[in-house]
């Protein structure tokens, strides 16, 4: 069994670069792909107690619907949650050297943070999924019940009125030859 899963929460480092495969005309059903970077920062204290930061940059590739979301709503600085898979691809550059890159192929993409914090949400785009007005929640109203009336204090332990005169048989026998299944 194997598993290839990446989960990232970070900030976008540059505006997405949008390309169309199968020609450059988006009206002819060309496949859309968006590429951008996401920074994740780990903060920790070193041996001397000084605060340190380690920032990793991740190359992100989003296809089709995820690329549409990236094109419409993601800008530099947007906080995102991404689930995907690691992919490594290779190519030969102009000088004939073989080059490699590792990317996160997006399976799921979610915008995080407040609407005001997201640079891609500016400009009044009404089709943003998180800009839909939320239905009004009914305001809380106190139940119409009489006020709490404390009951008189009862002693914590009361002696039984009529203690049993004979022991109660609950069916337990002290038979060592009984073979219990456990």
Supply database-style keywords:
five-stranded mixed barrel; 1 helix; single chain; 182 residues; mainly beta; 5% helix
**Strand tally, please?**
6
Our estimate of the beta-strand percent is 35-45%
Read across the widest sheet, the strand sequence of neighbours is: 1-3-4-6-5
Q: Biggest β-sheet: count, sense, barrel?
A: 5 strands, mixed, barrel
What is the arithmetic mean of pLDDT?
A: 78
Helix content: under 10%
Give the number of helices. Answer: 1
Coarse morphology: elongated
Structural class category: mainly beta
Weakly predicted, low-confidence segments: 123-136
N to C succession of SSEs: EEEEHEE
Distance N to C terminus: 36 Å
Report Rg: 32 Å
Description:
- With 182 residues, this protein is mainly β.
- The chain is 5% helix and 36% strand.
- The chain is built from one helix and six strands.
- It has one helix spanning 64-73, and strands spanning 6-12, 17-20, 32-45, 51-63, 79-92, 98-111.
- A five-stranded mixed beta barrel has the order 1-3-4-6-5.
- The longest helix has 10 residues, at 64-73.
- The two termini are 36 Å apart.
């Amino acid at each position: 069994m194997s598993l290839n899963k990446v989960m990232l929460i970070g900030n976008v480092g540059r505006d997405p670069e949008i390309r169309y495969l199968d020609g450059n005309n988006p009206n002819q059903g060309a496949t859309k792909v968006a590429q951008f970077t996401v920074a994740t920062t780990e903060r920790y204290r070193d041996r001397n107690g000084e605060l340190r930061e380690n920032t990793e940059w991740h190359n992100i590739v989003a296809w089709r619907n995820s690329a549409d979301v990236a094109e419409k709503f993601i800008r530099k600085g947007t906080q995102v949650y991404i689930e995907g898979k690691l992919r490594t691809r290779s190519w030969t550059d102009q000088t004939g050297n073989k080059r490699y890159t590792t990317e996160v192929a997006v399976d799921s993409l979610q915008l995080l943070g407040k609407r005001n914090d997201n640079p891609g949400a500016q400009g009044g785009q009404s089709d943003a999924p998180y800009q839909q007005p939320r239905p009004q929640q009914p305001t809380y109203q106190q139940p119409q019940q009489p006020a709490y009336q404390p009951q008189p204090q009862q002693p914590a332990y009361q002696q039984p009125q009529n203690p049993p005169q004979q022991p109660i048989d609950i069916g337990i026998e002290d038979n060592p030859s009984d073979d219990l299944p456990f």
